Amino acid sequence: EHHTLFPERTNVSIVQVRSQRVIRMRVWERSVGITQACGSAACAAVVAAVRRKFISQNSEVETILDGGSLSVTWREDGHVIMIGPAAISFTGTFDSSLSALMKG
Question: Are 47 and 7 a contacting pair, CB within 8 Å?
Fold first, then answer.
């Protein structure tokens, strides 16, 4: 995240292809660190694995993340389909009066 190659920092995903139908990944998000999951990174990992010929296009791939598994398929029509659970990971409140202070 802090390498000079990335002056504005970066997100990093480490992916292990376990089989034609299973990949394991861990996600590091800038300013946060290790996170439980990232759907867009899971989709990108499957597309990258298909392009590198580690897995086949149109395969339903179980993408195992720290927070659980997602099913990702890159279809031949170009659409990437992700299926998985959604969960609330944080709740909070926002003081809208602070918003005005930040603008001015």
Answer: no
Q: Which residues lie below 8 Å from residue 54, measured CB to CB, with a gap of 6+?
A: 17
Q: Do 32 and 5 contact (CB within 8 A), yes or no?
A: no
Instruction: State both tokens at 49.
Output: 């694995």
- The count of residues in the chain is 104
> Which residue bears the tokens 């944080």?
90
Using CB atoms within 10 Å of the CB of residue 54, give its burial: 0 to 12 exposed, 13 to 18 middle, 19+ buried.
middle
Q: pLDDT of 3-42, one tens digit each?
A: 899 899 999 999 999 999 999 999 999 988 999 999 999 9
Residue 91: Cβ within 10 Å count: 5
Q: Which residue has the tokens 């000079």?
A: 4
CA dihedral defined by 70, 74, 79, 85, rounded to 10 degrees?
-10
